[in-house]
Amino acid sequence: MRRLLSVVITFALFVAACGDDTPSTEGLQLIASDLQRVDSDASQTDVDALAAAQADFAAALYAILAEEDGDLVFSPVSIHIALAMALAGAEGETETQMVEALGLAGIPADRVHAALNALDALLEARNRVEPPVDGEERKIELSIVNSLWGQSGFAFEQEFLDLLAANYGAGMRVVDYRAAAEEARQAINEWVAGETNDRITELLPEGAVDELTRLVLTNAVYLDATWLEPFDRLVTAAEGFTLADGTVVDVPTMHGSVSARYARGDGWQAVDLAYTGGELSMLLILPDAGRFDEVEGSLSAGLIEEARAALEEAEVTISLPKFEIRTQTDLVAALTALGIQDAFDANVADFTGISTEEQLYVSGVLHEAFIAVDEAGTEAAAATAVIIGTTSAPVEVIAVTFDRPFMFLLQDRATGAALFIGRVLDPR
């Protein structure tokens, strides 16, 4: 089975009032900056600071989204990158609030986007193909792609376009929201579907863009990854999983004896399972029975870093349920709670770095994510729509059985980048 991890981030920018009609655009010609994406000269210090900022952002956003019931999955890195692209056009207090919420205050403003470019290059370097084992493929295929979809005839700031071209490789496709919003929506959805292997086919629902839209920014992260040590399908069996309310349900459970990194802390165990090449992994955190809420609550207080620091090589006998999760959520409330407020206020939002032709503000942030874990690896996809509008190692063998609610983090080990994070309350 093919392993896929893809993320799509979409920004839709709207304006305060309709401008003059612009003739429909023939095709999807490219405009914007002539600059090519540059090789980042960001320092390791800036990249480390960026990775730490993304980790903090992941934990803080998780704490807010976890207040809702049920399983959860979302992509912190993708959301963070997408908001950073919008940050490139923010000014004044709008910019200040976004910088604080994204944890970027410790990186000089003129080096933030170069650091993101450098992190992207590091993640791209994880790509590899290794000889098959027992006929099963072994590879990491990772790509990050960005694109802009702009209104024909709209006056975008050249500095904004240059910055996104140089650091995100984002060219602009011309569409006509004013006269053909539905056609533009379909074109964007087709691009998204193509970048996510048709996992996300309707990112922008009907009405998501209209004659007030001026720009949509899209980011797609694609990962095709297999486990370093796959589970044997022949030993997967239905076994009990205890839900939070004490109910026991039978779920397909995988079994394996693997060399992995393991840690135990106050009320929890953690196992870090590597994907092919050992550079990407899934960190699984299993709270002790009856302590899930307590342990989950410490996630934003540094639990992930504590677990990472305590990991040691070990021989682990692991029992892990196969699981599949899809989460759909509106992120406006969560991002507001993190401190991004002016960006959502039509009266005070300042995105003049994108354009001074009309007033722009963020009117909605929609996120959808999917993840499936089985014996071969991980398949996942996520999509976010940010709509900007107006008032209109020990020798012993350690046994870890994930037979109760647990949390997971799909990460890049070297940088700490969190590709996906979530929890499993009911693997069914």
Structure described in brief:
This protein is an alpha+beta fold. The protein has helices at residues 44-65, 76-87, 92-101, 112-124, 158-168, 177-195, 292-297, 303-310, 332-337; strands at residues 5-14, 30-31, 72-74, 128-133, 136-151, 172-175, 213-226, 237-242, 248-265, 268-274, 280-287, 312-321, 323-330, 362-373, 377-388, 397-401, 406-412, 418-424.
Q: Total number of β-strand segments? A: 18
Query: CATH homologous superfamily name of the largest domain?
Result: Antithrombin, subunit I, domain 2
The CATH architecture assignment of the largest domain turns out to be 2-Layer Sandwich
Q: Which bin fits the share of residues in helices?
A: 25-40%
Radius of gyration: 22 Å
- Which band does the percent of strand residues land in? 35-45%
CATH class of the largest domain: Alpha Beta
Oligomeric state of the chains present here: single chain
Structural class by secondary-structure content:
alpha+beta
- Poorly predicted runs: 1-26, 390-394
Gap from first CA to last CA: 20 Å
Biggest sheet descriptor = 9 strands, mixed
Q: What is the typical, i.e. mean, pLDDT?
A: 85
> What count of domains describes the coordinates?
2
Number of helices: 9
**What gross morphology would you assign?**
globular
CATH topology heading of the largest domain? Antithrombin, Chain I, domain 2
Query: Order of SSEs, N→C?
Result: EEHEHHHEEHEHEEEEEHHEEHEEEEE
